[in-house]
Here is the input.
Amino acid sequence: MLSAELPQGAVPKLERPGPLRERVYEALLELITSRTLPPGQHLVESELAGQLGVSRQPVREALQRLSNEGWVDLRPAQGAFVHAPTDEEADQLLTVRTLLEAEAARLAAANATSAGIRELEALCAVGEEAARREDVETVVDTNAAFHSKVMELAGNAVLAELAARVDQRVRWYYTPVARQRGARSWQEHRELIAAITDRDEQRATGVMRTHTEHTRASYQSHSWEEGQG
Amino acid sequence: MLSAELPQGAVPKLERPGPLRERVYEALLELITSRTLPPGQHLVESELAGQLGVSRQPVREALQRLSNEGWVDLRPAQGAFVHAPTDEEADQLLTVRTLLEAEAARLAAANATSAGIRELEALCAVGEEAARREDVETVVDTNAAFHSKVMELAGNAVLAELAARVDQRVRWYYTPVARQRGARSWQEHRELIAAITDRDEQRATGVMRTHTEHTRASYQSHSWEEGQG
DNA sequence: CGACGGTAGATTGTCTACAGTATGTGATCG
DNA sequence: CGATCACATACTGTAGACAATCTACCGTCG
Here is the structure.
């Protein structure tokens, strides 16, 4: 028992450096998602180690984690290569994403609290406002936050983790197409909130499915345009 | 170009030992799923290294992969502990499993070839026969093969990989309850085959959903009995 | 008698060194 | 001139060693 009850979050947690492999992992993931390291790039352990100022071991461990999560391919006795997704794989990822998001919407309809719904509405307002200002960065961030919130309201941590991984991969593959679906997307978000508020699992699933399929269509049409170059 | 066309599979692939971390990973996974290493067990790198006759490094790498896949918890500067799932987590895993299997059934209905359907029927026959003989091991293996085949026919590698991971975790958590749903389960498999043959995605989804939910109910009722001890 | 501080043991995190293997290049032979 | 073989190179795979950190126990003080 503590002698004094501390206010929640009062302790600054005093920034621990944390394991090196973690920081290396994050650094490499940033380099990959930002396309500084393009798909197919050969990643040499000693080079990365030198550039990051650490030994090879943390780099190895980070690379293996990246391999497990599908960011790099680890060919035996040859090294790590940034994964180059095929169109087929990208399509499969989108299918799975749709599936997971739709289920999250269903569970959110079943479990969401009214406080959670208010948070969704708040995010929606922010997103709509940013869309009006054509503030792309805020739109993208808020969109991610909205979907993340729906996932949180679903209350299924396993589902959330899978979805997070799949989402990040999808975003990576389609980042070259700087998509922007404007106001229509947020209108669909509003419909989703309505379905969740009504506790209508079927409708929530359907709305989310339609929504992510629209996003898919948007992605792929842009992808085709890019593909011509 | 090769001077002589070799018959497919004629080359024995001359058993490569493969990376040590891989073999260590498989060994540890076997020890965990077989409950030789019980949940909560503290895994000490140097001990495992000694017992397996290798250095600490391959053990470390295997442990980190196991951590990424949810088999062990890796507490910083303290070591690895076999993951101890909560009832809530197990339930969430079952939910996700149902979702993934149902989608696989839908895709299989959309994409299965008639050859694939015949393979499903063959597996079904084997399973039914084993069920009659009350050959539990064969029943379990064939059941896994059946679901794996459905997943293969779905033709979505991303989905298949996620499902494989989730399935293995589910089986691990519920292995203490040696379940056995007998003939009823195979009847449901037959219904699934019929739906796939008819290319009826809706029905295939529904049948698989019902099927896995039955399995869930079976699991949980046994789990409750166990829980009394 | 309870709480605090110090010390010892053990374990992880990281670095360096060595061995094994695949790749690319150049010389040699048909 | 083309193909093949041998060599050199570079990188990964593994092992061993050192430093940092956490846990547990014990003695001491209030």
Observations:
- Chain A has two domains: 20-82, 87-224.
